[in-house]
Amino acid sequence: MFRKVLLIALVASTALAALTPAHAVADGPAAQIALRVGPTGFVVPSHWAVGNPSLWLVDPLHTTAFNGLSGVAGCLLDVSDASGDGRIDGIEVLNAASGGCISGWSGEDQGFGVFVTSVDGLDAIGWPASYWYIQVNGLASNVGVSDMSLGDGDSLDFVYFGGPL
Q: In sequence order, what are the beta bridge partners of 159?
């Protein structure tokens, strides 16, 4: 009888694990996310070229040439669902990178999501003067950092546009 109960419990737990998305696990690394941060000009060619991660003139994921320069960073992060809402969002990625890959970040909730105002010491004052353009897997994000859902292998890019560096 004990073997039968144990077998049923094992089958049930395996079936539940198969139904649970990998990025919904809250205890430990759940997804590896690539984070890139850089300004237009010498790191990203122009606003019109953005949309393809291979168009980074200097990919901060693969060089240390800009170490110590505010607003340029790249790293692979193991990110978990810290909020427990069943998904990994851009805020969790930025928080995971803070104090390591980037010096920090800030943003403000504007009622329709969080507007990123600073990444790695580079401040944006807002549209149209300067802003952080967000890409997920090389494409423009149609949601803000607090509303996106990222999974294992995704990339999250913050490209700074406008204003003096």
A: 38, 133
CA 162, 146, 62, 54 torsion: positive or negative?
negative
DSSP 36-79: EEEEBTTTB--TTTTT-GGG-SS-TTS--TTTT-TT-EEEEEEE
* All domains in the chain, ordered by first residue: 23-161 (2.170.130.30)
pLDDT, averaged in runs of 10, over the chain (165 residues)? 34 31 42 86 54 63 77 90 91 94 92 87 82 87 90 91 64
Tokens describing residue 73: 């960073």
Q: How far apart are CA 118 and CA 133, in angstroms?
A: 12
pTM score above 0.85: no
